[in-house]
Amino acid sequence: MSDIERWLAANDQYLATALGWLRERLERLAGGEKPAALLAKEKEVAHAVDPEPPKQRSLLDRMLRSEPKPAQPAKALPPVRDEPRRPNAAATEKAAIPATMIEAEAEGEPPALVLLSHRLGLSEFERHTLLLCAAMELDTRIAGLCARAQGETGRTYPTFALALTLFDQPAWDVMSPERPLRYWRLVEINQPGAQPLVTSALKADERIVSYLKGLNYLDDRLVPLLMAPVPDKGALPPSQARVADTLVGQLQRAQKGAPLPVFQLLGADSEVKRTVANEVASRLGLTLYRLPAEALPQQTGDLETFVRLWQRESMLLPIALYIDATQLDRGASAHASGLRRLLTRGMGVTFFDTREPWPELGRGSVMVDVAKPTPSEQHAAWREALGESAEEHPSRLAGQFNFNYLAIRAIAGAALASPDPQGALGERLWMGCLRHARPALDQLAQPLEPKATWQDLELPATENKLLQQISDQVKSRLAVYDGWGFRERMNRGLGISVLFAG
User: What is the pLDDT of residue 51?
Assistant: First the structure.
């Protein structure tokens, strides 16, 4: 049996024991019995309000119906502590927490309910309340017990009122929207009309119930907005690997618990930036999901739901977010405002793909330039992709085109796989490069299809020789700039300029 199978078996056993303990408490409450700790608390409250309180009024009933008192200085509520239980007189009761549950919660690989509580900050009382809500999906007997425990046949569902009466160490702030059960959307509340919140039906979130059973998957409310994980594209060229090393180092040095910065990946090649981000995520053991900025919800409520769900998922799953804003009009788009609000929140490991920096994001972001491979790296990539058929093609292609590794591998693979004769490989490579580069060039200039050849030129020998020299200079510029080292010594443009006069 593998480690995962052993953990799943132990998790199932823990849930079975916890459900049995929960049924016992519900049965005791339905039969009129109450836990010793709750009885002691009721007596304490009753003595403070009425020396001879009615016997049938519960703690919650007294809290809701107690007579008004003179104004007293406000007292801070004691912090909710998730303390381990110690043996006491109540531990001998039939409904005391079983020792097997306590032992499982203290193990190095605790069950899913305890893991969830640690990661999302639930107190012991909130953990038991979540168990009560999830039990509705795990045990068909719980609905009837809830109705009996609440004294109404129609209340076949958990409520905050039931949890406050059922469990030890009840805390009223469990209903606060700032506490984990509501903040992280762990429970759904059905509150029709003017029904009080405390008696409204509670339902455990489907994703959370699956997590408690050991099924850990991305929330299906996020799936339609996200693109599939970016596949591994192979090794990065050295210049991009250095960028990845820097990002990994910054993330590893980030203070635990502190908000992580948003990494603004600047540059024109989104494919290169996605590859670098995927490399960083892979080294950290994360799965990278891509979110087009145009897919962000525009309504404030929907956007807040997305943010909360992603934040919750980033604490339950090893995931990272890649936001693609290359096509976003940051000035006029309605999505830009929502994107700014999203990027100022703690979203875990987040990469932001943009051509130009967004300085308004402030100190919570880090700007990183990500460029295509250098010409020498492209030359090496062409030679590797073409293998034995490389000949002089890498120098010619790397000197004329500026592609990333993925494009180079794709063009070389298509040219080598063509059934044309080997002698036409250079032509196939050249045409493949033109087809790949043309969509971007068409946005800047009008393409001209040449029809004349060298043989069609009617020029004096001197002028014809000059044109041949210009052509040779363009073909050989990679050797001059990189082979002879002029690229490192020149700080001006490296293009070829020709002045035609006359």
Answer: 47
Locate 402 and state its tokens.
């500026």
Question: Which residue stretches of 71-159 are H helix?
Answer: 99-105, 112-120, 124-138, 142-150
Which tokens hold the place of 335? Answer: 């999505």
Per-residue confidence (pLDDT) for residue 393, from 0 to 100: 87
Ranges of the chain with pLDDT below 70: 32-95, 230-233, 255, 257, 330-334, 362-363, 420-423, 439-447, 475-495
d(CA 275, CA 322) in angstroms, rounded, equals 11
What is d(CA 478, CA 383) in angstroms, rounded to the nearest whole number?
Answer: 14
Looking at residue 72, what is its pLDDT?
A: 40
Name the token pair of 255.
Answer: 């203070």
> At residue 326, what is the residue type?
T
Kindly give, in sequence order, each residue whose CB lies less than 8 Å from that of residue 60, ignoring residues fewer than 6 positions away. Answer: 161, 164, 165, 198
159-184, pLDDT tens digit by residue? 999 999 999 889 999 999 999 999 99
DSSP characters over 240-284: HHHHHHHHHHHHHHSPTTSPPPEEEEESS-HHHHHHHHHHHHHHT
Max CA separation in the chain (angstroms): 122
CA-nearest of 223, 219, 213, 160 to 184 is 219
Distant-in-sequence contacts of 266-270, Cβ < 8 A, 24+ apart: 266/354, 266/355, 266/356, 266/357, 266/367, 266/368, 266/369, 266/370, 267/355, 267/369, 267/370, 267/371, 268/355, 269/370, 269/371, 269/372, 269/404, 270/324, 270/326, 270/353
Helix (H) or strand (E) run with residue 40 in it:
helix 36-49
Cα torsion at 269, 275, 277, 283 (round to 10°)? -160
